[in-house]
Specification:
Elements lengths: L10 H9 L8 H13 L5 H14 L5 H5 L3 H8 L8 H21 L2 H6 L7 E2 L13 H12 L7 H10 L3 E2 L6 H5 L7
Parallel strand pairs: 1-2
Length: 191
Amino acid sequence: MHRCSWAGTDPVYIDYHDREWGVPMHDERTLFEMLVLDGAQAGLSWITILKKRDNYRVAFDNFNARKMARYGEGKVQALLNDPGIVRNRLKVGAAIQNAKMLLKLQEQEGSFAEYLWRYVDGKPIINAWRNIKEIPARTPLSETISKELSRRGFKFVGPTICYAFMQAMGMVNDHTLDCFRYRELGGKRRR
């Protein structure tokens, strides 16, 4: 069984690659979790965040945006003292800000999932990369989504973070052509 080369040999990475990455996601809580975690990953390796994901779920009330939006300075201090997450004040603050903005966006748009999937008419973009070196770090669409989320008050949503989020949530299928998940997630076999 051939996988994208970035999955490596770490069982956590392999499980994430095989079961989650690139699978079209529509669950509001899970989408918010992925957005926060992709923001937390800025400047770090994704495996670092994956290994802390369960700690993040506990620390951030399972990414319940309503609860997170009400966090005060006491909770912020507790988060900054929590060794199970990335203890960066800007990233913690961004997670709380993004919870507030998510609630506002849901009020205005009805659903975070519907809002995001409108950018691709409800269907994933199926790319055809031979190797990971061909995969871009950002695209014109990730730049558009980044600008729109930033305009709405979201933080840590730059174009590169947005593209990683788009890949994670299955808005784009960036599994390489030789990866078994490429075809499972809608890619066509190329000759």
